[in-house]
Amino acid sequence: MTEQTAAPTAATEEPAAPAPEQEIPSAGAEPVPVTDVQAAEPVLATESVPATEPVPVTESVPATEPVPVTESVPATEPVPVTDVQAAEPVPATEPVPAAEPVPAAESVPAGESVPAAEPLEAPEQGLAVAEPVPAPKSSRRVLRAVARWTAAVLVLGGLGTGTALGITSMERTEVPGLATEGDGRWDYPELSLPALPAGSPRPFNEANVAEIHHADLRKLLIPAPAGATADKKLTGGWVSTTQFVSEFRKDKRGELTQLLDDSALRHIAARGWTMPDGTRSKVYLLQFNSTAYAQGLRDDTYVSSTPGIPLDWPTDLQLDESWNAGGKVPETAVYAYGETKTGKGRIHEAYIQAGDTLALVIHSQQGKKIAEQIPFRQTLILQNQLLG
Questions:
Q1: Are 343 and 373 a contacting pair, CB within 8 Å?
Q2: Of the given ranges (82-96, 170-184, 279-293, 324-338), which has the lowest mean pLDDT?
Q3: What distances in angstroms separate CA 299 from CA 251, 295, 307, 317, 353, one per listed residue?
Q4: DSSP readout, 87-134?
Q5: Phi, psi at residue 142, to the nearest 5°?
Q6: 3-state SS assignment for residue 283
Q7: Is the distance from CB of 307 to CB of 362 less than 8 angstroms?
Q8: CA–CA separation, 134 vs 7, rounded Å?
Q9: CB-neighbour burial class of residue 340 (10 A; exposed 0-12, middle 13-18, buried 19+)
Q10: Would you say the C-alpha torsion 327, 330, 336, 342 has a positive or negative sign?
């Protein structure tokens, strides 16, 4: 038989010199694992293996043991960025190119180690330290505006409160736009009925058939209004019969004194004052033992359509027909007189009968000045209420 010579392979012409006690791994040997190497940039060998032609993989080169790698390729550690504040995010528009895998076809020559890959440098654009972000100016402007408006509201509120307090403390006649002329009434203090003895009823109570005033008669006198000058003779206490009859004409005083003695008069209380406008006021309260005696004196002095015994005054007084008995307490009688039928003039006179008590009220002016009618009627109504 004719021997057929096989074609020599490229590997038989220049075989790689085997290392002592080491053999070149076959083409089918496992490549160096790269699972622990992070893909960033391909690891380049410092020296390449010279070869004229690539070794075909049709036939494997026998090898006793694989060439162990003396030093493993250390994996590059990623640059920590936990302590770095991100200023601007890395734009995602351009994707990072993937690193090419390490080629496993090239063998490492015996006796040489694979150099370690240089660590990756951190990209400059993603590691800049961020500067503190200044507060927006708009928020400061808002705070200043709020502070200014708050101050303005407080100032206006204080002014409004002060104005309101000033107006409420003023009299109506002192407030511009609300000023009204006074109607001439006097400023009397607040009135109240005096306390009664224990178990004693009011004069017009059903249990008080005789209509007796059990309260102190002096406490039933109307007080002087504000601004009045007290009369030194009529101070709100007890007065004599002589003082009372001195208010009438001299030629009638004896007759009146006799009537008072015959009427079982108990006592007389009186108060007088003079107002700044010159008006003189006098109030007398006469209390009798019973209502019948008080009624008898009123009849004996002819107090009805006329004032009866005239006062010590140059002119005779007439019944005031304009008086409508307004404010009169039930079970009481009121008779008002003046220089005219309308009550106008320099003097006003009135009688009030309330149970066992008869009251005389006088307002007068000296000279030609007219005594105002409104304060006179005010005094008359208030005294009537105290006796009721």
A1: yes
A2: 82-96
A3: 20, 6, 11, 18, 11
A4: SSPPPSSSPPPPPPPPP-SSPPPTT-PPPPPPPPPPPSTT-PPPPPPP
A5: -65, -45
A6: strand
A7: no
A8: 81
A9: middle
A10: positive
For residue 168, how many C-alpha atoms fall within 13 Å in the half-sphere facing its CB?
6
Residues whose CB falls within 8 Å of the CB of residue 371, separated by 6 or more in sequence, listed in order: 279, 345, 346, 347, 348, 363, 364, 365
Rounded distance between C-alpha atoms, residue 363 and residue 338, angstroms: 10
Longest dimension (CA), the chain: 201
Extended strands (E) in the chain: 229-239, 265-274, 280-288, 318-319, 333-338, 347-354, 357-364
Other beta carbons within 10 angstroms of residue 362's beta carbon come to 20
What is the side-by-side strand order in the sheet with 318-319?
229-239, 265-274, 280-288, 357-364, 347-354, 333-338, 318-319
The rounded Cα 246 to chain-centroid distance in angstroms is 64
* Angle CA 52–54–58, to nearest 5: 140
CA atoms within 13 A of residue 366's CA, in its CB half-sphere: 5
Residue-wise pLDDT tens digits, 147-194: 888 877 787 777 777 666 665 555 555 555 555 556 789 999 999 999
Q: For 327-360, how does the pLDDT look when each residue is reduced to its tens digit (9 = 90+)?
A: 678 889 999 999 999 888 999 999 999 999 999 9
pTM of the model: 0.56
| Sign of the CA dihedral running 79, 33, 112, 56 | negative
Return mean pLDDT, the chain: 73
Cα 214 vs. chain centroid, distance in angstroms? Answer: 52
Q: Residue 33 — φ and ψ, nearest 5°?
A: -65, 140
